[in-house]
Each structure stands twice: as structure tokens, then as C-alpha cells.
């Protein structure tokens, strides 16, 4: 029997374990956490209490236990450990260290985009001295972010020198790099383009638009969905350049994504990339919307099956009629979780593909933390909005004061407008 080792628990881990088990593999999860805090262990056939950073011990254990594949979810740290461990064991890993360096270093990625003619936001150089000469060159507003963080960690939006200095030091405090990006703040719609690769060929699986609840931070994307306009523009104007960038980086296998924005000046700008599954987990509804399964694509590759270019999904060319949705549940305040309601009920609905939450009663939470994600598909936008509204009525996470700490999305008129615009663009072609 083939054996698969999963490094840690993160979004995507449980789906991979379930798929591997369905294919007849014996599954193992390792990290230093007890099973109740590392829930993938509850899905696996076996678990180890070995920290994913202990590569020497893991290598020895994998050899004695005859492990055939090593994999992980979206965790960037565990993906780095996965690459190193696979190299030691001579096992396949879709991601390589050179390509991964562009995913981890936003400045390096941005430099390559410039070289290949891909539009990026204007940036400014700041040293640790933060001299008056450097600050005088900055045109506000700007975004400050570490080069090596994802998931909005360490990011700040600044409108003056005082905020910029504070944000610079904050970004340095959470980063392992000595480089900090300071760039023009863009204003507009935001997407990420999700790609699949095989033998160096790159295919655009889907554009995924990101929407925050009005009045909440725009980087708290409550709804990520295939409902989109400007699909044809991206496909014709930007996608050919992005494909060249990914190929130049060395993304030959697996999956990845590139985040971009349509600024108020009417132009697209590339923001960053990730050579991994997307944290919004849109790879789940992509199964039905695009007929492409990222989980099987990655797990099969980890077991040694070479994905072929002819197996790649067809490049998206127009807006989809059906809707793939990820509903991310963000907190609206600090506190301690006292009760979690509705997840089991929602998971039983026929439209729902996955309900995944890492939150537990007793957890201390901070403002704007993600507590879970609900993935589903709908035949059209009206049905999508009805499902979201029903989720709002069913799912509640209460703090010790009895307050619901979840940001509930309800900007349905906007979603319907975007949906219709996208379909009209398609009909005009």
C-alpha cells in the first residue's frame, strides 16, 4: 500500500487526505500539535508528533515507514519543508526552490514583471534611516508590505509620513527579510488569476474576483467568486504576459495564482503571485465550474504521476454563467469564542461543496481574523446570493458576551450587477 505524509494542517490538507484515501493510499499527518488542534490528524490513518521543521527526524521516519509521497496544504512554511524533504527522499514535488523564491519575494517577482513588460505599481526606495530626502519623494497614498509575507500579514495603507514610518517598522518586525516594499496605493477591483501547469505549459483555469463587505477593510475579502467582469480584457491584454512570467520563473508543474487590480486609471497592475493552492480555496468550486481538480492534480503528481499538457483545462476566455464561490468568515472584533453555530447544518445543503473551519470554542480571536470558509457552486448569481443570505441566517460564531463576531456579506446588488456586466461582455464577442 502506498503511503502519503501530510505536513501539518492548513486549508486544503483535509481535501488532499480524503482524496488520497479514496485512491487507496495510507495517510499520515505530522506536526507537534495534538489532534484536536491539528484536525487533519483526525482524518488520517495515522499521525506523528514530529514538528514539520525537524527534517532529519522526518527523513529517517519516512525511510523506515516507506513513505511514497510528501505533500502539504496552503501553508507556505510547510511547502518549503515539503520541497526540502522530497529532495532528500528523492520524491517528486511540483514546486522547486528557484520558482518558489519569486512567490516568497515580492520585490524579485515585481522586478521580473518589469523586465517582461507586465505593468506593476510605481514604488519608492526607503532605507532603514528613513531620511527626509527619501520621504520627500513619496507620493501618497502608498501601500507598505514585507516582501515575504502572504495573507495580508504586515501590510499597511499610509497617507502621510508619520503613518509610513510606523508602517515601515511594523513590516520589518514581521518579516525575515531586510527588504520592504513601498508602492503606490491602487484603487479598484481586485482579482487573482488561477493557473495550472504541466511540463511547462500554463493554462488559465479561472479569474476569481474578491469582494469585501462595504464598511470593512478592503483586504478582508468576504466573497471570492468566479462572478466577474473584464474577463475578456484580462485574457487579451495581460494573460499572455503573465504566462511568460510564470514560464520564465520556472513554474513547470502544479498550480499557482497571480493577483492583480484594475486601478481607477483604467489599467491593470500585477500585485504578487503564489506558487501553491489559493488560500480562498476556490480550487474546490473550480471542479464544477471549470472541470479541473487541483487536489487530484497535486496528489497524483506527489505519487509520481506525470501530468500531461493535454490534460490541462481549457483556458478561460469569457465570464462563466455558473458561479463558484468561497465565503470567507472574518471576525469583526477581538474576544474569545464561546459558541459556534450552523456549520454542520450548512455542510448538509446540496449546493455546499466544503465547510472548513479551524476555529474552536475557547479560541482567543483578534479583529479581522479568518475563522473559516464555505465553498459552493450555484447555477446563477440570484441563486448564489440566496445561498449567501441563508448562510448569514444560519452560521453564527459567538463570543463570551454573546455577540456574533462574524462579518456577514450582504452587498448582493453589487454582485448581480457585476454578473450581468460579465455576461454582456461575453455576448458582445
Summarize the structure.
The protein has 429 residues and is α+β, with helices and mostly antiparallel strands.
Explain this structure.
With about 425 residues, this protein is of the alpha+beta class. Helices cover about 35% and strands about 25% of the residues. The protein contains 14 helices and 19 strands. The protein has helices at about 15-20, 40-45, 55-65, 75-90, 95-105, 105-115, 130-135, 160-175, 230-250, 285-290, 295-300, 345, 380-395, 410-429, and strands at about 5, 25-30, 45-50, 70, 125, 140-145, 155-160, 180-185, 190-200, 200-210, 220-225, 255-265, 270-275, 325-330, 335-340, 350-355, 365, 370-380, 395-400. Helix 1 (about 15-20) packs across helix 11 (about 295-300), helix 3 crosses helix 4 and helix 5 packs across helix 6. The termini are far apart. About 45% of the residues are buried. The mean pLDDT is about 95.
Element layout with pairings:
Elements lengths: L2 E5 L5 H10 L3 E5 L9 H4 L2 E3 L6 H10 L4 E3 L4 H14 L7 H8 L1 H10 L7 E2 L7 H5 L5 E5 L9 E3 L2 H14 L5 E5 L3 E11 L2 E12 L8 E5 L5 H19 L4 E10 L4 E7 L11 H4 L4 H9 L20 E8 L4 E7 L1 H5 L4 E5 L7 E2 L4 E9 L2 H14 L1 E4 L12 H17 L1
Parallel strand pairs: 1-2, 1-4, 2-3
Antiparallel strand pairs: 5-8, 6-7, 6-8, 9-10, 9-12, 10-11, 11-14, 12-13, 14-18, 15-17, 15-19, 16-18
Helix pairs in contact: 1-11, 3-4, 5-6
Number of helices: 14
| DSSP summary, beta strand count | 19
Distance between the termini: 51 Å
Shape: globular
Percent helix, as a range, is 25-40%
Give the low-confidence spans: none
Strand order of the largest sheet: 13-12-9-10-11-14-18-16
Strand content: 25-35%
The residue-averaged pLDDT reads 94
The major pleated sheet works out as:
8 strands, antiparallel
Structural class: alpha+beta
Radius of gyration: 21 Å
